[in-house]
Amino acid sequence: MSSTRSSRHQQSHERILDAAARAVRRAGVAGVGVAEVMKEAGLTHGGFYAHFASRDALLAEALEHAGRQSNARVRERMRTRTDAGESPLSALVNEYLSGAHMEALELGCPVAAVGSDMQRAHEALRGVAQSRVRGLAALVADTLPGDAPPGSAWALAATLVGAIQLARVLGPDGGGNEVLQACRETVLLQYVRQDSIV
Questions:
Q1: What's the rounded Cα separation, in Å, for the pair 86 and 92?
Q2: Which tens digit of pLDDT belongs to each residue from 91-147?
Q3: Rounded Cα–Cα distance for residues 90 and 78 (Å)
Q4: N or C: which end of the chain has fewer CB within 10 A?
Q5: What separation in angstroms does the CA of 127 have from each of 33, 70, 92, 115, 138?
Q6: What is the pTM of this model?
Q7: Is the Cβ–Cβ distance between 156 and 187 less than 8 Å?
Q8: % of residues, the chain, pLDDT over 90
């Protein structure tokens, strides 16, 4: 394969992954159709198998892609907040439990978007989801003060995911913003003694 053709192939692959990652977050795993993803990527349905062996292979790679995108986005926004004086913990909590994240279904955290689907998913997809969950817990652990109680990263990660899921169910006009505010305040109060710059 020539370098030009290889480059075009890689660009098409990335477009498919971007479209599939948005679709997974928006519609859940069961709601992702190959034809719709290819159309959104601006490619023909027939070209799908030049990129993926199956729909399951697409879903697994799309979920991993969504996780990388989300992680990079959150870290960038956290960096903006910490540069302005917020602690890493406050930056993470305020960014994850924001109204923008609640409403950004196609761009938000894939763990929150499809976590409940994963317990019934095939093994390869469940493995990717487990990796994304561990990645979120590791991100949380990086922000916690050194003397946080054992298990705090798991407890906080579960709180973040659960809060955004509940807020999305209620919606911005039905109480979702109140859920996010209550969870932000409660989480930050819990760590205020260890993490005083909030």
A1: 10
A2: 999 999 999 999 988 889 999 998 888 878 888 888 999 999 999 999 999 999 888
A3: 9
A4: N
A5: 21, 18, 25, 12, 16
A6: 0.86
A7: yes
A8: 73
**Residues 158-186 pLDDT 10s:** 999 999 999 999 999 999 999 999 999 99
Reported as a single tens digit per residue, the pLDDT across 10-45 is: 999 999 999 999 999 998 888 899 999 999 999 988
* Residue carrying structure tokens 């399951």: 56
> b/e string for 109-134 if b means 16 or more Cβ within 10 A?
bbbbbbbebbeebeeebbebbeebbe
| Contact partners, residue 112, CB within 8 Å, separation at least 6 | 160, 161, 164, 165, 168
What are the structural domains, with CATH classification, of the chain?
Answer: 56-190 (1.10.357.10)
Structure tokens at 10: 């890689």
